[in-house]
């Protein structure tokens, strides 16, 4: 059974490994600066009030010290209460104002009490301001760590660098957003952002064409065209159209168009015809004439009979020939699947792969081979041996 993460106490925050020394240094600097500010107030308290001349200096200091410490440390105490309430989601405005007022009083006492000595006024007032600033920054950092550990504060983004922001500000901003919301690293966020921007650009261009197509169907009535374009979920159509696109089939079609022409007088080998009726048997290389060397004589004797009954697959690219299964049972299964796929052009490859309990790549191959007419029926199989070929 899963357990929720342990809650962090309001007064505590998780310590990141390696920051213990920084924590101790912050506390040390704060205590020294606060002590210096308190000494300045004690100095003022022993000189300015009308003390009796018979009262020793050390007695005056002992009497003034508690009040000076309360004034100086009151800002830190009030700030600590404010920090506790802010970790719980409150604004703690009253505690924060009280803290600022206490520190302002301490600094004012040092400035006014040492007005005759600008050096002492600057030193003691500066120490008080420095101590309070260190306290605020330290507690704010601990509060952010605690909120982040509790899931109440977003992640910090990676440092992408000035050059990255300069050369690709849009990409970097998208990567930063992904890193903040999903916790991605530097390289992963940039890669995903680049992919998202490219997809959005493609979808935007495709959506414009789809809208133009919808409007063209009602060109006779501009108002009706606007209604159709506005009410149609173009974004959903765009994504569905992208899902239906078969990249491998397009690649095969383009590859077939860019093949170099064969040399004059040299038959071009385009592939081998596997025979599904005999497992593991190759019929032979397929040449430009469309038949293996041992079948050319039979083909020539039939004259123009081949033109009356075209055979699929003899001039197909080598890639399509290699996609055809060699086993007869697999071939029949592909034909059955193709019969169902051809009747459902709207189904995506992923949906069909799930229904057939096969891979998406297999569905893509079936669509590529079936679109070429090679799986229409068993009698039209590209692997069928021609009559008289033995």
Automatic annotation (TrEMBL):
<feature type="compositionally biased region" description="Basic and acidic residues">
    <location>
        <begin position="293"/>
        <end position="314"/>
    </location>
</feature>
<keyword id="KW-0812">Transmembrane</keyword>
<feature type="region of interest" description="Disordered">
    <location>
        <begin position="260"/>
        <end position="315"/>
    </location>
</feature>
<feature type="transmembrane region" description="Helical">
    <location>
        <begin position="119"/>
        <end position="138"/>
    </location>
</feature>
<keyword id="KW-0472">Membrane</keyword>
<feature type="transmembrane region" description="Helical">
    <location>
        <begin position="94"/>
        <end position="113"/>
    </location>
</feature>
<protein>
    <recommendedName>
        <fullName>DUF2637 domain-containing protein</fullName>
    </recommendedName>
</protein>
<keyword id="KW-1133">Transmembrane helix</keyword>
<feature type="transmembrane region" description="Helical">
    <location>
        <begin position="57"/>
        <end position="82"/>
    </location>
</feature>
<feature type="compositionally biased region" description="Basic and acidic residues">
    <location>
        <begin position="272"/>
        <end position="282"/>
    </location>
</feature>
<feature type="transmembrane region" description="Helical">
    <location>
        <begin position="27"/>
        <end position="45"/>
    </location>
</feature>
């Amino acid at each position: 059974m899963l357990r929720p993460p342990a809650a962090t106490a309001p007064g505590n925050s998780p310590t990141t490994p390696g920051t213990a020394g920084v924590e101790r240094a912050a506390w040390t600097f704060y205590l020294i600066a606060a002590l210096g500010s308190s000494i300045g107030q004690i100095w003022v308290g022993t000189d300015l009030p009308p003390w009796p001349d018979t009262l020793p200096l050390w007695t005056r200091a002992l009497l003034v010290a508690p009040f000076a410490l309360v004034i100086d440390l009151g800002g830190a105490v009030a700030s600590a209460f404010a920090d506790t309430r802010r970790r719980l989601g409150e604004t703690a405005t009253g505690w924060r104002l009280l803290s600022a007022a206490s520190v302002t009083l301490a600094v004012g006492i040092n400035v006014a009490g040492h007005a005759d000595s600008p050096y002492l006024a600057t030193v003691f007032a500066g120490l008080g301001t420095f101590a309070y600033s260190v306290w605020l920054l330290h507690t704010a950092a601990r509060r952010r760590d605690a909120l982040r550990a509790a899931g109440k504060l977003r992640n910090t983004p990676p440092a992408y660098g000035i050059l990255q922001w300069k050369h690709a500000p849009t990409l970097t901003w998208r990567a930063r957003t992904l890193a903040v919301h999903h916790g991605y690293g530097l390289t992963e966020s940039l890669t995903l952002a680049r992919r998202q921007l490219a997809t959005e650009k493609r979808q935007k261009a495709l959506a414009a064409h789809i809208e133009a197509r919808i409007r063209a169907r009602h060109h006779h009535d501009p108002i009706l065209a606007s209604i159709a374009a506005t009410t149609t979920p173009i974004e959903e159509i765009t994504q569905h159209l992208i899902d239906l696109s078969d990249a491998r089939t397009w690649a095969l079609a383009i590859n077939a168009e860019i093949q170099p022409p064969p040399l004059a007088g040299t038959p071009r080998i385009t592939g081998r015809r596997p025979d599904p009726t005999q497992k593991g048997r190759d019929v032979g290389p397929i040449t430009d004439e469309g038949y293996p060397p041992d079948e050319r004589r039979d083909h020539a004797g039939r004259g123009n009979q081949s033109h009356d009954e075209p055979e699929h697959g003899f001039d197909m690219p080598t890639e399509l020939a290699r996609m055809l299964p060699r086993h007869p049972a697999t071939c029949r299964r592909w034909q059955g699947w193709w019969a169902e796929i051809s009747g459902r052009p709207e189904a995506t490859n992923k949906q069909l792969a799930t229904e057939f309990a096969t891979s998406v790549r297999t569905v893509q191959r079936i669509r590529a081979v079936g679109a070429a007419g090679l799986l229409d029926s068993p009698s039209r199989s590209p692997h069928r041996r021609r009559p008289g070929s033995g």
